[in-house]
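For anyone still unconvinced, we reproduce a single protein record, the chain in one-letter code, the fold tokenised, and leave readers to judge:
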Amino acid sequence: MAAFTPEEFTRLRIDCWALVYGGVVTVEETNRDACIGWLQRHGYRMETMDLGVGFDAVAAEVGRRFDWVGNFGYAYEEGRRGLDALSDGFHFDVPDEGGVVLELLRPEDLFRDQPKWLLGLLGVASRHSAYHMAHGRRFFALLVLPDLPCGEAERSPLLGQVLARQEVGFPQRRAWPD
């Protein structure tokens, strides 16, 4: 099943933009309410995380949201907050109709304190988006940024960041059905 109809795709909607270009998109605070309203009218369920509350609180939220203790038997806490663990536990049930948006508020605050972890989170979200898009479902992350001034020198430090490197993998042996 296609993730978008040809009509939807040619209109350059925010969901198309997000999914086709890596599963992560930004919106300025001024446009947030209108964007969220549009997404909800088009069947998207919003999952919001405030990243401006400090890394310990964000990690605790990750643990609760993904039922870390229930799934892994330990808390997502100091010493156990690696990106591999995050990748293993990151999961959203995405319906066949509509979709899910992970809205990330105040990402620049967390980026100042934990840039590697935040970029890792966005990389995990990007891969999760690709996985669901391959199944005809829609998931993406929406970063809400402060209103950006016109000058390049004053833009958000998140803009232009590289989320993940893509490498040529090892040859696959028998990775196709008979």
Observations:
- Helices lie at 6-10, 14-20, 29-41, 55-65, 68-72, 83-89, 107-113, 115-134.
- The beta strands are 24-28, 44-50, 99-105, 139-145.
